[in-house]
Amino acid sequence: MTTHQHSRHLHAHDAHGDGDHESIHDHGHRHHGGHNGHGHEDMLEVEQAFQRIIGHFDPLDTVELPVLECLGLTLAEDINSPLDLPPLANSAMDGYAVLHTDIAHANGAPPTLSVISAVAAGQVSDQTVTAGNAIRIMTGAPVPAGADTVVPFEETDEMDRRRNGQPLNEIEIRKALPLGSNVRPAGEDVHSGELVLPTGTVVRPAEAGVMASLGLSKARVIRRPVVAVLSTGDELTTAGDPLTPGHIYDSNSSSVAAAVIAAGGVPRIIGIARDNLDDLHRCIDTAADADLLVTSAGVSKGDYDMVKDVLEQRGDMNFWSVRMRPAKPLAFGLLHRNGRSPLPLLGLPGNPVSALLAFEMFGRPAVRRMLGRDLLARPMVEGVLTGPIYNSDGRRVYARVEVERRDGAWFATPTGPQGSNILTSLSRANGLAICPSDLTRKEAGQAVKIIMLDWNEEVEL
After folding, report:
1. 135 within 8 A of 102, measured Cβ to Cβ
2. Does residue 388 have a cis bond before it (omega within 30 degrees)?
């Protein structure tokens, strides 16, 4: 990945002076005590955390799938054409297959040709077009032997003959056309043996169509990563269950799992781990065959020690503070599993905006790397703020903004209070406006860099 691609991706938000409340467990439960683990450092820049995480991910193994199931996946093999496409010269129009020499002077002296047969798409004529003759032909039908030009119906007297009840055993050609008009040559699109889709191509609808046109029903691709998603906290209730006093619904499982799907992965929600050692171990065990485990809550300085203790018991973990707002606390490490390579774990903050933003910054690129993608960074634009962004503590702020195009420029409007618990502020946003860590605020009217959340990495600016 280029430096430019890194710089496009690594920036975040929270404004109006609201605190991150990152010591609050998920959606409002405070914790006590804690430590930062053997991997603690006072504060990492966003880019440092990104590099330490992304270096642990590589493209996954490959699978052979039906073409339609390959959509959005990366080809793991070259696709070479087994045939010419089209396999035979065919007609681009409904009309008459003729010899060009018969119609070359039709503008001055329209010739009348004998119609010796007709050929439809899917048929191959057993007749040969000779001087003075024509064969009626439909779009897509192979051009009969001898013919070198197709004259559309509209350039003949066919409609007149039909209106007058005349037979179509003859046809008058009323317009001279260049040699080869309306004839698609064999191999015009693809020649047999030609490399059509190289390894590394991302399968879109057009690529699926190309493979089908070559007669291919399956392709070898890099498989989708399975991402286990785990929320932690005694106060959490699964959506759909009755809500009891003192409890809140778990939103992080749904938002992170949706982000996994949007990134191209397969989420596996493994439930809610309660604040006890046995339940934490049980939930982690269920993620043993995943490609990545993403947890939320339990990674900041004030969280229960047991969350960190369990993670450190099971692998090599780091607990970082990242110079970004929101989403300062972050955990990353490798969990041991029997007979297999270690399981990467990304520990997100508990507050809902922080969790989703941290996944956007660090989890989404990891999923894309496992999918075999080279571009990991969303596009950025430069726009004009319509409201201020506040930066109270020297972190890089990623303000949730609504971005719109007016009079040839981008304008970014903050979506309201920017607390890390206010998930609706993110649902109203389509961009993240950046206030650098060395500024205390960005004023309305100032230029600002904006990460475009709804644009994919392939957008070129």
Report:
1. no
2. no
**Which residue is associated with the tokens 């749904």?**
254
The model's pTM is 0.84
Can you tell me which residue has the tokens 């070479």? 80
Q: Which stretches within 16-174 are classed as H helix? A: 46-54, 100-103, 158-163
Which amino acid belongs to residue 291?
A: D
Provide the pairing of β-strand 90-91 with 183-184: antiparallel
Phi (first) and psi of residue 23, to 5 degrees: -85, 0
Alpha-helical (H) ranges within 174-293 are 205-213, 252-263, 277-285
Outline where DSSP puts E strands in 303-446.
315-321, 324-325, 329-335, 343-348, 380-385, 389-390, 396-406, 409-414, 431-435, 441-442
Q: What is the pLDDT of residues 392-407, one digit of tens each?
A: 899 999 999 999 999 9
- List, for residues 415-446, the tens digit of each pLDDT value: 998 989 999 999 999 999 999 999 999 999 99
Between helix 277-285 and helix 305-313 the angle, nearest 10°, is 40
* Rg, the chain, Cα only: 32
Using DSSP bridges, classify how beta strands 324-325 and 396-406 pair: parallel, antiparallel or unpaired.
Answer: parallel
Structure tokens at 167: 């037979």
- Per-residue CA distances from 368 to 79, 159, 316 (Å): 22, 58, 23
Element (H, E) at 270: strand 266-273
With beta carbons less than 8 A apart as the criterion, state whether 83 and 216 touch: no
For residue 68, how many other CB atoms are within 10 A of its CB? 12
The helix or strand, by DSSP H or E, that contains position 113, with its residue range, turns out to be strand 112-119
For β-strands 292-296 and 226-232, DSSP reports them as parallel
Contacts of 373 by beta carbon, 8 Å cutoff, 6+ apart:
74, 202, 457
| Alpha carbon distance 390, 126 (integer Å) | 79
Q: What domains can be seen in the chain, in order of their start residue?
A: 20-62+223-370 (3.40.980.10), 69-85+188-222 (3.90.105.10), 90-184 (2.170.190.11), 380-452 (2.40.340.10)
